[in-house]
Write a structure and sequence with these properties.
Layout lengths: L9 H7 L1 H4 L23 H4 L18 H4 L3 H4 L3 E2 L2 E4 L5 E17 L2 E8 L7 E5 L3 E8 L8 E2 L23 E7 L4 E6 L5 H6 L3 E7 L8 E10 L9 E4 L5 H4 L2 E4 L4 E7 L7 E5 L4 E5 L8 E4 L1 E4 L4 E6 L5 E6 L3 H5 L4 E6 L4 H8 L3 H9 L7
Parallel strand pairs: 1-5, 3-6, 5-10, 11-14, 13-21
Antiparallel strand pairs: 2-3, 3-4, 6-8, 7-9, 9-10, 11-12, 14-19, 15-18, 15-20, 16-17, 16-19, 20-21
Length: 379
């Protein structure tokens, strides 16, 4: 069923509480979204009226998102590096082949809230492409949607590989394909996104992802995560209603991210918000070193607990926790926090770590992937 009445504003959502409004936040205007997919019943009014008591302000969204139906899990995305199909060119250079497919897909961004996304490979954010500086990248892009799209990579490459209208192949039309090929440089925490017009529509609909280029010597071993800060304008009025990291609101509040006391944690943090000029990241009960854009091996800011990012800005955070416990992270923008962008780290002693993995719904492979990306174990 498609709704035609005006959607609650985000301030209405805040006023009634995220729990009671979550079932409405997706789709009450212009037929653009819906509170349930065509073949599933939406949440009842009784279910939507409750709240939980584990979040910022003791208010989370009711229910859980079906990650299997989405085809991706925000917790898995934290460590889901895509190294491509690796081979060696005749001159000895490493070649990494990727296939990126543009697809239309309804995704669940909060319990019972569905968003008509445009995706790379059926997920938002798209695959986290990871390589080493100097690798040759060959990305075959296939457009299976009804709109023109591109892939624009942040980095250094020829103009005809820039993925913008009017240069090289320009916009790839529905049913078309193009092969982007260039060397990965410089090292750092980068991103890619669609650059077709209108740019704001293609970005806010979900066409973006992380692009990590490791330095040739790697970085010190650490537990690594990728966090893409994003948001969703569910009624297409130019204002976001749901904020998140890796797409699903409050996911890491409901499922705290397990880490071990004393270990080095490295976060590749990317801000891709549309319609909001600034975003931020605040770490509770701790401080971190920050590497702006990740293009240096020395911190650009030391011993800070909050950083600001504009759209497209990104960087690397490194920290260790001295104490065990549950520690929050969120933007220091209260409205974003109350509309879904917040989470927790579950810091435990090493002997308690297997149980923490189980509680978060992840396994030893997730743990291995979190530790493999740094020096010596890149995909």
């Amino acid at each position: 069923m498609r709704w035609r009445k005006p959607l609650l504003s985000r301030r209405d959502v805040l006023r009634v509480g995220a729990g009671s409004a979550a079932a409405l936040a997706g789709s009450l205007a212009l037929g653009q979204g819906r509170t349930h997919p065509p073949d599933h019943a939406g949440p009842t009014a009784e279910a939507a009226a409750g709240t939980t008591h584990a979040g910022h302000g003791n208010n989370l969204m009711v229910g859980t998102v079906d990650h299997s139906r989405n085809g991706f899990d925000p917790m898995a995305i934290l460590t889901d590096w895509d190294g491509g199909r690796v081979s060696t060119l005749p001159d000895g250079q490493t070649l990494r082949d990727y296939t990126m497919i543009a697809q239309n897909k309804d995704i669940e961004i909060a319990p019972g809230v569905f968003f008509p996304a445009w995706t790379y490979n059926g997920r938002v954010p798209g695959p986290t492409l990871r390589c080493t500086e100097g690798d040759r990248l060959r990305i075959t892009f296939i457009n299976q949607t009804t709109h023109p799209h591109t892939i624009h990579f942040h980095g250094v490459h020829p103009a005809d590989m820039d993925g913008v209208p009017g240069t090289g192949p320009g916009e790839i039309q529905p049913g078309g394909r193009f092969v982007y090929e260039f060397d990965a440089e410089p090292f750092g925490c980068h991103l890619y996104h669609c650059h077709a017009t209108s740019l704001k529509r293609h970005i806010h609909k979900g066409m973006y992802g992380a692009f990590i280029v490791d330095p040739k010597g790697g970085r010190p071993p650490a537990r690594e995560f990728v966090m893409v800060q994003n948001a969703f304008d569910t009624n297409f009025d130019g204002t976001n209603e749901i904020y998140a990291v890796n797409t699903v609101g409050f996911e890491f509040a409901r499922r705290p991210i397990p880490i071990q006391k004393g270990e080095l944690v490295r976060i590749y943090l990317i801000n891709i918000l549309e319609f909001d000029l600034i975003n931020s990241f605040h770490l509770h009960a701790n401080f971190f070193n920050y590497y702006d854009t990740g293009t240096t091996l020395e911190p650009t800011s030391r011993i800070v607990d909050t950083i600001m990012q504009a759209q497209g800005q990104r960087g690397i955070l490194e920290f260790r926790y001295k104490f065990t416990g549950t520690f929050m992270f969120h933007p220091h923008i209260s409205e974003f926090t109350e509309l879904g962008w917040m989470g927790n780290f579950q810091v435990v002693d090493p002997e308690a770590y297997p149980a923490a993995l189980q509680a978060a719904g992840v396994d030893a492979e997730w743990d291995r992937r979190g530790r493999q990306g740094a020096a010596g174990g890149r995909p």
